[in-house]
Amino acid sequence: MLYLVGLGLSDETDITVKGLDIVKKASRVYLEAYTSILLVDQSTLVMRPVLTQFDESYYGRSIIVADREMVEFDSNLESESNELLRYAATEDVALLVVGDPFGATTHADLVLRARQLGIPVTTVPNASIMNGIGACGLQLYNFGQTVSMVFFTDNWRPASFYDRVRENRQIGLHTLLLLDIKVKEQTIENMMRGNKVFEPPRYMTVGQCARQMLEIEEEKAEGVYGPDSLAIGAARVGGRNEKFVAGTLKELCDADDALGPPLHSMVLLGRRAHELERDFARDFAIDKESWDSIWARDYGKQDAPAAPEA
Amino acid sequence: MLYLVGLGLSDETDITVKGLDIVKKASRVYLEAYTSILLVDQSTLVMRPVLTQFDESYYGRSIIVADREMVEFDSNLESESNELLRYAATEDVALLVVGDPFGATTHADLVLRARQLGIPVTTVPNASIMNGIGACGLQLYNFGQTVSMVFFTDNWRPASFYDRVRENRQIGLHTLLLLDIKVKEQTIENMMRGNKVFEPPRYMTVGQCARQMLEIEEEKAEGVYGPDSLAIGAARVGGRNEKFVAGTLKELCDADDALGPPLHSMVLLGRRAHELERDFARDFAIDKESWDSIWARDYGKQDAPAAPEA
Hints:
The structure is a homodimer.
Chain A: E1 2-6, H1 17-25, E2 28-31, E3 64-65, H2 68-71, H3 83-88, E4 93-97, H4 105-116, E5 121-124, H5 129-132, E6 147-149, H6 160-170, E7 175-179, E8 181-182, H7 188-193, E9 202-203, H8 206-220, E10 230-235, E11 243-248, H9 249-252, H10 256-259, E12 264-268, H11 275-282, H12 288-298
Parallel strand pairs in A: 1-4, 1-5, 2-3, 2-4, 6-7
Antiparallel strand pairs in A: 7-12, 8-9, 10-11, 10-12
């Protein structure tokens, strides 16, 4: 049996009682990502939060840190198995996953492979950023598709997020933006010398995200959003010290000090928002008067152009 | 301190270790909903799953079943407190909530009132149907807004869901449909006699939902979806016996026996779907050949009309 156990959003006590029971009984336990090693890779970044504190000794047993090869598959090699599935064919194997097991496409792929090999799979759900963001006060049913924002470089500034945000905003919905994480980066020098020395991880901040968004709007000038658009910056969602800051995109460019350490994420508000959402998020506002006046002008509209008869 | 503790989706072992610790230490523990009593009310139905099995004795302490008056507020009465907040002002009070604390607007309202009274609030996240539905194999970032489907009656057939579904489908996104629950209903006779006798709870099934959807499409004839549109029926999501059935809306009209007992929910697929989603859900298909051919014809399109340059 293969168990996929969600660890939740913040620390080792966010595991469920059901999940902890599996960890204690399984013959092998793999941990896919944790703070000090941060095995987050680009392909699965989109959906994966990172635990801010994590003490594996809490579970009272040895845990194998799973690297990419143990979990993922090379799509060029058909019918490939991997270490995880080889053991799971005959033993109870648990893979601990930050957030919820179905946050990353990697795990859907793993389940699919296990099925093909006739290995039973049990998943233990947990909170992920996709529902944890509800703590900012915006209602989850008012969110559209989720987008990811990557670090721009001098010659790579992918703007596909802009079209996704437009689609959401055209029908009045909020957009959750998941922010880039860079880990295991090497300097060119270390790479050339073959030194396995990695740069410190980099986490995109709400300020960086807001600036990149405004940069692309300035370039495209299609009015999908602007410096006055309301948004909520979120830090360490689901953790004991989670923090939200609400304001305009322009204000959020300078909100990183207020938000504190990673991980950050952001929500751009849709105009079909409810007054309970306004009041809840207002408490997080950098400038409450500006929040109120922009809201009154642009938000709280229950109909949207795409549904004229609604 | 007021603690809002998410219970997760299925049974009493879905609470997190952090949540259980709070339950053990709090001076008063309220439980907002559980199987045998089902305190689900219409206004908060949209976001709230219901535990399929729940044994409060598991927590090893007495738990107060919170009725509506203890948790909600009458919006006509300003600055109203309630039992929960009166105790929370001086003691550690925990309110256990099925799913995630921010699944229902009620809890956002409760947090807002607590803030106004200067009562600190801590929330403990957990899985909700909003992310648990990821177990059907559809990627959460491809979902649009969530809609609710209520039981039609002879003279009340609210069709506002139709516009929301259209908005999602126009940009190629999946739609999660949360299905109606009727509890504490009385017969007219019992109501007139003042007998506090309630009818057995009713849960909408995937079959009922699919039929209502097709009925409205037939009436409106705007082609938002049709009998051939692909969807996934879900039962007891997050539970040990969760079940998915995939097929056309027409096929799902008759899938209730295959899905089994409540709670049911449903996802209508958007055409901007990925082949991993196709392959994962195909295993749940009533008719795999029909699934494949309809998918090849209508799904897996990465661009959508609302974003021509995407």
